[in-house]
Structure prediction request, 187 residues.
Amino acid sequence: MHRRHLNTLLERYATAWPGEADIVNRFRAFVATHDDCLLRSCVPGHITASAWILSPDRRSALLTHHKKLGRWLQLGGHVDGEAVIEASALREAREESGMAHFEFEPWAGDVLVPLDLDVHSIPARRTEPEHDHWDVRFLLRAMPGQEPVLSEEGTDLRWFSLAEIPTVTDEESVLRLLRKAAMRREG
Prediction:
């Protein structure tokens, strides 16, 4: 299983977010010790990819009310063996939003850097034991002229103004995405 691209993304992230060495080191250790980290079958956990999607005017973000978890979250899911993690984030954005056209928001110039890294526990369900999602998150902007369409993974899908997001969720990882996206737009 190729992890070279993931390690490159982690290197870029470490450079862009120097205060987050702890999470980068946790990711590096996990990736180094699990050859199968890109597959759902990796029992302790696996790499996932998410997209913080901004509206064309960058004044709103798209959130889904997750059916299984019952919370407003960014769009994302399993990488299912895809070594190019951002391709999985884009696939999930398309599948869960019903929209087809997005642009990645680069960090500096044309260099793609993840917006955030997050590790969160997923509760046991049916035959699946409790495990961790090692989420690599990207900043996307939706292109104009598209309307979101709810997927079967959510119970709702809506654009929220950036100011409104803290009123609909207290999920720290979602609020962190909001803050970091604002920092990237200002920087």
Q: What stands out?
A: The radius of gyration is 16 Å.
